[in-house]
Each structure stands twice: as C-alpha cells, then as structure tokens.
C-alpha cells in the first residue's frame, strides 16, 4: 500500500509521502537505542513532567488533530476529537501511576529463602517496536507509548500506511514534550519492512494491534528471535440481552456499540444474542434506532456514521453481507452498497444467521450487526463462545446470579455488564484465543515490557 492520505469520504488522494530509506531507518533505530541509554537513567518524576507536557500538547492541538484523523480514516469529527482528549487522559494516568505500578517489592520473611533481604525490582527492556492500525490512529499508539516511555523504554512506530499524518504527528510529540531525542519515532515503511526492524538486535520486543494474519506473522518472527510480543488481533464480540434487561437502554447502547467509529472497532459489539422472551421487542427498537442514524460527510458535526476507511475494507464487508444474504440471512435494515462517492456502507442488521455463513465466524469490520434468537442462557453462552475470537463481551441483565453465571462462562478478556465495552487507562485490555496475547493499559500494560528481576541478598 502506498504511503498516502486518501479521503475515504471522496476516494481522492490528498497527500503522498516518500517512505524512509534504509539509511533513515538505521538512523532512527540507532537514535532509539541512544535515547534508551539516557531515558532509563532519568527519574519517574522527570518522565512524568514530560508526559504531562505531552498531554498539554495533545489538548492544544486537539482541533487540528481531530480533522487530521477524520480526513485520514473517515471517523465523525466529534469522535475524532474525543480520541485526542482520551490520549491526553492516558498520558496523565501513567504520569500519575507509573512509579507505583513499578515499585520494588520486598519479601516479608526473607529467612524463608535463606536471605537477609529478598524481593523484586522492575527494569526497562529497551527499544520496542509498535505496529499499529488506522482505526484509532492516536489512541492505539498512545496506550503503548505512554506506559512504555514512563517505564524508561523507547519506541519505534510502524503505523498503518493510510494514516501518515497521524504517524508524523506522533513522530515529534514526545520530543516536543521534552523526552530525549529518539525516545519515540515513526518509521514510514511498508509492511514488508517490519521483519528487518524486528530482527535488529537493538529492538528487544514488539506490540501489534491489527489483523490475525499480521499478528501471526510478527509473532513468528519474534519467536524465531526469542523476543517478547503483545498482540491484540480483533474480535467478534457478543452483546447478550437477557429477559430482565432494560431493553430501551440496551437497544440505545447497542446502536452505539455497533456503529461507533463507523463500526470499525475491535471491541465493537458485533453479534447480538437475545433471549426469545425479549427478542422481538429488543430487535424492533434496535432496528428503528439504527435506521435513524445519519450517514454522511464525517466532517459534518451532524453525521453519525461516516465511510469505511478503505475501499478494500468496504468491499470485504459487502462480500460478507452478500454471502449471508445468499445463504438465507434476513436484512432488517441496510445491506447494500450505496451509489455515491467514497467508501460508504449503511448501518446494517441481519437476522437468521446460520453457521455456514462467513459472518458467523469472521469479524465484520464495519457497521454490520447480526442478531440471534436464543431459548436459554446456556444457548446464549454457547453461541457467544462459538468463535475463534475472545476479546470482550457485553451482558445485559439485572439478575445477579445470572450475571455471575455469565461472567464465569464467557470466553473473553472482559465482560461489561449493562454497558458497552470501552478501553480505559485504569483497566487491563486484551483478549484470549485468536484475539491475541498479553495485556495493555493499567498496571498490567506497563509491566509487559519490563524485566522483573529477582533480588536476593545473603
């Protein structure tokens, strides 16, 4: 893919960028290594001051950055603005908490290990490569960069090729905030250039958010080099509605949970599994509210849903829907590519989904929802878990025993009860099965790229 900004609302190329050549890539890796030597010897207080300055810069640049995001990947402007402000919040969270998360611990009774003192201490690993997607072009990066830099690591970013403006903003943000030169840099390289960077001995670990094939490829390289990786590879999250649910609240949240970010979110609810006792009422409300969404220019403040970010993504989404329709799915709203410029796809709801349809297993990365009628909580859990993914889930019920039952049985990295899945700096984020390995955010996220040293003294 060319390194270019192509406006998905029009299909027009706005700007192109020359990729970094081998000399520039080498210079940036060397700069990251030099910066690590300097950064690891700074104090948490110093890093926190720089990180808070990065938050201030993000807030000052919020309007310009929001427009950059919207033009690059098509998200409605208000949602892009919220992403920028969330990044600033993440910076402050780690500025405030990194030192506590990485505090040394001592063994209460060192005599049990025949020592006068014993415990653990965290030390940063070094240069970490981040391979990141376009769907949240700032937040996906910042939820790695903020904890990594606060821990004393340095970062190299290989961003998605359709969001180079976002990549170049991040390329200078931390240096502007005061971090050592080279502490965080972007690499404008194609996907084919990732292996060379990953195999460089100065790069000690990697994190990737993206497709399952991309994750498998990076993990394979990392395995051959014996380097640590964190992978977040998407999901097909269930949204379960049980008889005691507040149906109006559930239906309203369902619309947002499916269509936020034009439906292009790994943690978006995608499969709506509804108990037969409330199925007709919930689906009626869900369809009515979905059909009322305004699709249009994402720079228009009144737009609810913009275009899919890439033409290939829109075409793949349409193929999934067409396959389901050909195999008997019922279209409740949407379901066809509109005749207009840009890569738009209407908010769509499909019913009568069967296991032979691609949509039953594959992730629909766009505003397409599937609904399932179930007779019991056992059937609901079985369908929820009948996927290779296991990122998050949303459960709607007011029965405490039922809630506990589902929390224990849903195969997912998170269960949100009576609310939609949202990533918070304060909570660990990640999945199981083919949704990935490792965790981001909270204390777990900052500890992923640390050497946990055992310290024993006679």
Automatic annotation (TrEMBL):
Keywords: NADP, Oxidoreductase. It comes from Microbacterium schleiferi. Belongs to the aldehyde dehydrogenase family. It comes from the Bacteria. One of its GO terms (molecular function) is succinate-semialdehyde dehydrogenase (NAD+) activity. It holds the Pfam family Aldedh. Coiled coil: none annotated. This is NADP-dependent succinic semialdehyde dehydrogenase. The keyword Oxidoreductase applies. CDD domains: ALDH_SSADH1_GabD1. The keyword Oxidoreductase applies. Gene3D superfamilies: Aldehyde Dehydrogenase, Chain A, domain 1 (3.40.605.10), Aldehyde Dehydrogenase, Chain A, domain 2 (3.40.309.10). Residues 3-455 form the Aldehyde dehydrogenase domain.
